[in-house]
């Protein structure tokens, strides 16, 4: 990435603080464009006295460190928090990484000016298409992992009796379970496709409005804030089916908790799938399942070839069987969900159980969003 020629200033000081676990803000002109869109000169002077991202600081502490009046600090941080560019945790405040973290909160809330939303969109699109090196080598660190489409336990799962699956199909592996154990649901726009629309290049797979799915208390909080469109259980099921027919991947946080937030991702705009698909970075961990085709049922309609978000399925000729490249496949189940003849089933091939919470430094992804949004 190109490094701008500029003297170290408050924006550079804050940029260096935007590190949490493997996440960082690279020294690049697009990052400085982003920071200057988020924070004016007055705000950045206050933020320069913050600790590292994820660490909290109070207004009295800031006043003592900076020498600025408390009332000025309160006013400045209230404005930054309203735009969801600074987190408020109780009576304290904290910086958060710009991607993921501030990115999602900023575009879920959309509390900035239309001009700034467009400026930030352009910078974010560049950063997604040109992922920065992580601060340290963490080959096993993945932010997200697919969970299986709805009705998987009834229609899409093949059980191989020769495989010792110690943990059958677990709750965190199914979007259907997420729906069944909750009563409140909402949809928020996909932030990745939203910035594409703001930048004049909308996604051809699905609109931003066909976005993230949220359940439980988090959904209620987003509805109360006016950020989420409420759904009944029946509407939620119908909505999830539509995302699957569009070819979107249900990406949840890579942990074994009871998920309440699922991104519905395309591989052409998604900030997690793009690095995984184009650069083979481990942003998305493959699920415990892999598609198993049945040549006897397959009518070679090539729907699976067209729908596969990772371009892992090919078909050489009418006479040939479809071929799956399992090195590219992430086990999302989009192919199985869209097969009209049930000629592809999802087979459990491993028993990887991720940690209960996937920590990014001292925060999980869900915690970062809650600190920024709620």
Q: What would you note in describing this structure?
A:
This protein is α+β, with helices and mostly antiparallel strands and 374 residues long. The protein folds into 2 domains: 10-137 and 364-373, Arc Repressor Mutant, subunit A; 144-357, no CATH class. It has helices at 10-17, 29-38, 41-47, 59-66, 70-82, 102-109, 114-129, 152-156, 175-180, 191-198, 217-225, 233-246, 273-279, 303-307, 334-338, 365-373, and strands spanning 57-58, 87-89, 92-94, 144-146, 157-158, 185-188, 212-215, 229-231, 249-253, 261-265, 289-293, 313-314, 323-324, 344-348, 359-360, 363-364. The strands form 5 sheets. It has a 6-stranded antiparallel β-sheet, sandwiched between helices. Strands 1-3-2 form a 3-stranded antiparallel β-sheet.
Characteristic terms for this protein:
Arc Repressor Mutant, subunit A; six-stranded antiparallel sheet; three-stranded antiparallel sheet; 16 helices; disordered N terminus
Summed up:
The chain is an alpha+beta fold and 374 residues long. It is built from 16 helices and 16 strands.
Describe the secondary structure blueprint for this structure.
Elements (H helix, E strand, L loop, with lengths): L9 H8 L11 H10 L2 H7 L9 E2 H8 L3 H13 L4 E3 L2 E3 L7 H8 L4 H16 L14 E3 L5 H5 E2 L16 H6 L4 E4 L2 H8 L13 E4 L1 H9 L3 E3 L1 H14 L2 E5 L7 E5 L7 H7 L9 E5 L9 H5 L5 E2 L8 E2 L9 H5 L5 E5 L10 E2 L2 E2 H9 L1
Parallel strand pairs: 5-14
Antiparallel strand pairs: 1-3, 2-3, 4-9, 6-7, 6-8, 7-10, 9-10, 11-14, 12-13, 15-16
């Amino acid at each position: 990435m190109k490094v701008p020629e500029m003297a170290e200033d408050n924006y550079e000081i804050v940029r260096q603080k935007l590190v949490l676990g493997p996440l960082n803000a690279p020294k690049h002109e697009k990052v400085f464009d982003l920071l200057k869109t988020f924070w004016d000169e007055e705000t950045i002077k206050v933020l320069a006295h913050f600790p590292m991202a994820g660490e909290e600081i109070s207004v009295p502490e800031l006043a003592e460190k900076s020498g600025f009046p408390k009332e000025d600090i309160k006013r400045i941080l209230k404005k930054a928090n309203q735009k969801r560019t600074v987190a408020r945790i109780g009576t304290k405040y904290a910086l958060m990484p710009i991607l993921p973290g501030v990115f999602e909160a900023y575009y879920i809330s959309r509390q900035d000016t239309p001009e700034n939303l467009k400026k930030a969109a352009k910078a974010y699109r560049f950063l997604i298409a040109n992922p920065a090196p992580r601060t340290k080598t963490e080959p096993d660190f993945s932010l997200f992992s697919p969970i299986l489409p709805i009705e998987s336990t009834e229609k899409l799962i093949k059980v191989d009796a020769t495989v010792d699956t110690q943990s059958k199909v677990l709750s965190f592996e199914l979007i259907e379970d997420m729906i069944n154990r909750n009563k409140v649901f909402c949809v928020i726009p996909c932030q990745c496709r939203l910035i594409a629309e703001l930048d004049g290049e909308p996604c051809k797979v699905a609109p931003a409005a066909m976005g993230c799915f949220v359940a439980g208390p988090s959904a209620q909080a987003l509805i109360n804030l006016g950020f989420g469109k409420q759904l009944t259980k029946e509407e939620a099921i119908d909505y999830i089916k539509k995302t699957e027919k569009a070819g979107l991947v249900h990406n949840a946080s890579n942990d074994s908790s009871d998920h309440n937030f699922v991104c519905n991702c395309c591989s052409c705009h998604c900030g997690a799938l793009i690095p995984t698909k184009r650069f083979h970075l481990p942003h998305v961990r493959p699920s415990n399942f892999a598609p198993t085709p049945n040549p006897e049922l397959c009518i070679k309609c090539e729907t699976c070839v067209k729908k596969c978000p990772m371009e892992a399925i090919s078909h050489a000729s009418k006479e040939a069987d479809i071929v799956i490249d399992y090195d590219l496949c992430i086990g999302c189940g989009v192919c199985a969900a869209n097969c009209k003849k049930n000629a592809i089933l999802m087979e459990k091939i491993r028993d990887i159980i991720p940690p209960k919470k996937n920590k990014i430094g001292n925060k999980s992804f869900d915690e970062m969003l809650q600190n920024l949004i709620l």
